[in-house]
Every structure is written in C-alpha cells, then in structure tokens.
Write a structure and sequence with these properties.
By secondary structure, the protein is of the alpha/beta class. It has helices at about 15-25, 40-50, 65-70, 80-90, 105-110, 130-135, 150-160, and strands spanning about 30-35, 55-65, 95-100, 115-120, 140-145. It has a single domain (about 5-160), classed as HUPs (Rossmann fold). It is built from seven helices and five strands. The longest helix has 13 residues, at about 15-25. It is globular, with a radius of gyration of 16 Å. The N and C termini lie far apart (about 40 Å). The mean pLDDT is about 90.
Length: about 160
C-alpha cells in the first residue's frame, strides 16, 4: 500500500493540477512557498507551520538538484530531490510538493496561482519572485519570521568541523 504522504509528492505540475483544481472549486485558500530544503531542520518546520496557518492548503515548490547547484554551489544538494520531497511531504502541515527545474519558481507560481505567496524573513517583498503576479491576481504576499542561527549551511559547517 502506498504511504499517504507519498501521495503529496508530484513529479511535475501536471500531476498536481487535479488536486489544485479541486481546491479551487472548494474555494480553499492556497498558500505557496518554495526553496531547496536541503537537510530539513527546525527552522524549516517552524516556517512551514507558520505558512500553513495562513490558509487551507500548503504547496511547496522544491528546487531540483541542478537548480540547487546553481544557487548553492557544486557540493549541494546534500540530499537528492526525491529525498527532500519525501521529507517535506511527511510533514503534517504540507499538502503538496512539486519540483521545479528553473532558476526561480516563477513558472510554477503562475501555474499554481496561489492565494498567498510566502517567503522567510531573510527576504524583502520587492525581491520575492512571483510577488508581482500574485498581487496582480488579487493574492497576498507575506514575509514570515526568520529563525536566526539555524540554516542548512550552518549545519553542514558544524558537521564538517566536528568530524575533521
């Protein structure tokens, strides 16, 4: 039997369309965020819970491995895309996980058409990809709180330093 959380993992937008269509029919408030989510940590969990509380459904766009390398360097990601997506899908507050291969999630945001677009507190509203589209279509864009002192990069550095 297929694990319930694996049903939240979609390999591309086309697989997510029926679910999103149903939510739109039900007038569910769809919240969207995106990121690499390489080495899931408590800062991610706090952020995703805060995002989910803004609406009825939380959709996460996840950078594929090539786009993570473009953004973070050749040694990343630590965990491959499928593993990162499964970890996110296993979280209770997450409703759909969809990968994207472009440098930014602009195309995926336009496809999902979220009611609320969220990013972490280390972003400024004017720098959030997709914000203009969401606002133009009657949606809302939010910058959520940022938990200072915890990041994937810091966790990687800690591991390297402890096991030299």
């Amino acid at each position: 039997m297929k694990e319930h959380y694996l049903q939240k993992v979609k390999d591309h937008f086309r697989e997510a369309e029926p679910v999103l269509g149903q939510w739109k029919t039900e007038k569910a408030k769809i919240v969207f965020t995106n990121g690499c989510f390489d080495i899931l940590h408590s800062g991610h969990v706090q952020y995703l819970q805060e995002a989910r509380e803004l609406g009825d459904s939380l959709v996460i766009g996840v950078n594929d491995d090539a786009s993570v390398q473009m953004l973070k360097g050749s040694h990343r990601p630590i965990l491959p895309l499928r593993e990162r997506m499964i970890m996110l899908a296993a979280l209770q507050m997450v409703d759909l996980v969809i990968p994207f291969e472009e440098e930014t999630p602009e195309t995926l945001i336009r496809q999902v058409k979220p009611d609320i677009l969220v990013k972490g507190g280390d972003y400024q509203l004017e720098n959030i990809v997709g914000a203009e589209f969401v606002l133009k279509n009657g949606g809302d864009v939010r910058v959520l709180s940022f938990r200072d002192g915890i990041s994937t990069s810091q966790i990687i550095d800690r591991i390297i330093n402890r096991f030299k």
